[in-house]
Write a structure and sequence with these properties.
By secondary structure, the protein is mainly alpha-helical. The protein has one domain (17-308). It contains 13 helices and no strands. The chain has helices spanning 2-12, 17-43, 49-71, 82-106, 109-115, 118-130, 137-155, 165-193, 196-215, 227-254, 257-264, 267-278, 285-308. Helix 4 runs antiparallel to helix 8 and helix 6 (118-130) packs across helix 8. The longest helix has 29 residues, at 165-193. The relative contact order is 0.20. Mean pLDDT is 80; it is low at 1-12 and 310-315.
């Protein structure tokens, strides 16, 4: 009897107060990141996509620098890491949002949300290219299923339409996902030396600086924009780029990486639903099927990692 009581108590203690809070905060993060595609879609109707990214991350950079100076005032960059740190900023901020904002402008928020599911798969493919020893049959099956799912989500009707604006936008979104996957590889060694806040702050600043010259190609399109568009940019900068990141850091301290990865798979679900409800965007059944195939592939690969007793992290 005493042993049963101890077991019952141990079950209750599986979920601490911090873990309950972390799960709630992760749901908030998923909700905000999921609806961010709506704000991007609305903002780029008035503000050119690269210029919009520049304004967003100029605001986010200022806030992150203020926070970093209060939390980690003494942290400095080692000279040998400057090049890698800069590359991460260009991949994770400059190129990622260059591709994403143009992709959302040309395509739909719903399509963009579906294509987000390719991030883990692209990361896995890159991992297999650089570390072929990690190859397993389950991974091969998972990647194969993901390729089919991605094809269906991107092409929409199962056929390549090279003249379709949506299709070109979808390709830009794939470019964004590739940039993010490369960003995670670049940051693998840096994450051991520096905190997440430090990396995000400095790479956001570097990425923003690199966005400035790119935005000049949109100079002819610059014009006054509405308060509504600016509010959406503020939402993206403050809520999605700063607050969500700080919440996500808290979550990573209290929840397993596998759990947070599975949570991230809900981002496209929120994006598709919000795109339908807010923008009245339609999504074809074959696209939903493609997205489900990609999610299935992610689950297969995660299961493979559990079997091998390893942790696979996608940021």
């Amino acid at each position: 009897m005493p042993e049963n009581i101890i077991k019952d108590r141990s079950i209750l203690n599986l979920f601490t107060r911090e873990q309950v809070i972390a799960n709630f905060l992760m749901l908030v993060v998923i909700l905000l990141w999921g609806v961010s595609f709506i704000s991007i879609k609305i903002a780029v109707t008035e503000i050119p996509p690269i210029t919009m990214a520049l304004i967003r991350f100029a605001i986010a950079s200022l806030l992150l620098v203020i926070i970093l100076r209060r939390v980690e005032p003494g942290t400095k960059v080692e000279k040998k890491d400057i090049l890698l740190l800069s590359l991460g900023g260009m991949l994770g901020i400059t190129l990622y949002f260059f591709f994403e904002n143009i992709g959302v402008k040309l395509s739909t928020a719903t399509n963009a949300s579906l294509i987000v599911t390719t991030i883990p798969i692209i990361a896995i493919i890159l991992e297999l290219l650089f570390f072929p020893s990690n190859l397993s049959m389950l991974k091969v099956v998972g990647v194969g299923i993901a390729i089919v799912g991605t094809y269906l989500s991107v092409t929409a009707n199962g056929e390549m339409e090279f003249n379709s604006k949506n299709f070109i936008g979808n390709l830009f979104m794939l470019g964004a996902m590739l940039s993010w996957a490369l960003y995670t590889l670049v940051n693998k060694n840096l994450q051991v030396k520096y905190s997440g806040l430090f990396l995000t702050t400095y790479q956001t600043v570097i990425g923003t600086v690199c966005l400035a010259p790119l935005s000049m190609v949109e100079y002819a399109q610059w014009q006054p924009f509405s308060l509504t568009a600016f509010v959406h940019v503020l939402f993206l900068a403050i809520c999605c780029s700063v607050i969500c990141y700080l919440l996500y850091m808290y979550v990573l301290k209290h929840l397993d990486v596998v759990i947070t990865t599975l949570y991230l798979n809900l981002v496209p679900v929120v994006g598709v639903v919000s795109g339908y409800l807010v923008l009245n965007e339609s999504v074809l059944p074959i696209q939903i099927f493609g997205g489900l195939l990609t999610l299935l592939a992610i689950l297969i690969v995660n299961w493979d990692q559990i079997i091998q007793g390893k942790k696979y992290k996608v940021i």
